[in-house]
Amino acid sequence: MKPADIHSLVSDLKARGEAFALATVVRTVAATAAKAGAKAVIRPDGTISEGWIGGGCARAAVLKAAHDAIADGQPRLVSIQPKDLLGAQGVSAGETRDGIRFASNMCPSKGTMDVFVEPIMPQPELVIMGASPVAVALADLGARMGFSRTITAPPEDQPAFAEAERRIEGYALEAAPAGRRYVVVSTQGRGDEAALRAALASGAEYVAFVGSHAKGAALRAALEKAGVEREALAALKVPAGLDIGAITPDEIALSILAEIVRIMRRDGGRP
């Protein structure tokens, strides 16, 4: 596949929200099958969709790095070298030093190849339930923070949002697809329980309710009585956001996104 075709495939996969890794040969020494600039698209199951980064001498090490990169969202630099060169540097195959993972090239050519493996992860999904002023502020700020926004609100409330990547009329939120999902319920008394039931059943990493501690306690009690499991209710964050003394809708939205980013960074995720 030509470089232009690789770039088209990368754009297509990103648009579909699929996770993958892009491996790029950045340096070669002596004889190697692939040369600097060669690229390959590697899927989570270890298959190479398109491209070329060498044969069996390099393939296993690059696929392992791609698997790990997709798992934790962090890039890798892999240096595949003959065993004698590794020994001369005092490193072993599989060892990581100064950010470089070393692998052994067992091929007769005894070439060296450095490969940069970059994970391309789906945009994290920010689900906004309701159409309160805080919800509208979240949608606006979330776009600038790199989130894919899903708006769930009654049809008559949808026009409150100028734009969104996805819209759901009502609160029928399906189980979370691949990728990270963060749900904020800001319904202001209009369908609080229905929205929270859907949010808690969606498999999201974060579910928060914009409201007071007292309102949250009342809703937890009502939902538990309705059959929602205590374990799910314990994961509900009320009030939503970090305590920064926020008052205005914009400030509250900022505190919520700050909390989500903190969760993402601690887990190694990237917006």
Could you please say which CATH topology of the largest domain applies here? Rossmann fold
Shape: elongated
Helix content: 25-40%
| Count of strand segments | 13
Q: What would CATH call the architecture of the largest domain?
A: 3-Layer(aba) Sandwich
Approximate strand percentage: 25-35%
Q: How many domains?
A: 2
Distance between the termini: 29 Å
Would you state the CATH class of the largest domain?
Alpha Beta
Description:
- The chain has 271 residues and is of the alpha/beta class.
- The model has no long low-confidence stretch (mean pLDDT 89).
- Strands 3-2-1-7-4-6-5 form a 7-stranded mixed β-sheet, with helices on both faces. The protein has a 6-stranded parallel β-sheet with strand order 10-9-8-11-12-13, sandwiched between helices.
- α4 crosses α8 (249-266).
- It is built from 8 helices and 13 strands.
- The chain folds into 2 domains: 3-120, no CATH class; 125-266, Rossmann fold (3-Layer(aba) Sandwich), CATH 3.40.50.720.
- The protein has helices at 3-15, 56-72, 83-89, 133-144, 192-200, 213-225, 230-234, 249-266, and strands at residues 20-29, 39-42, 48-51, 76-82, 96-97, 100-105, 112-120, 125-129, 148-153, 166-169, 181-185, 206-209, 236-237.
Question: Could you name the key traits of this structure?
Answer:
271 residues; alpha/beta; Rossmann fold; 2 domains; seven-stranded mixed β-sheet; six-stranded parallel β-sheet; 8 helices; elongated
In a few lines, what is going on in this structure?
Helices cover 35% and strands 25% of the residues. It is of the alpha/beta class.
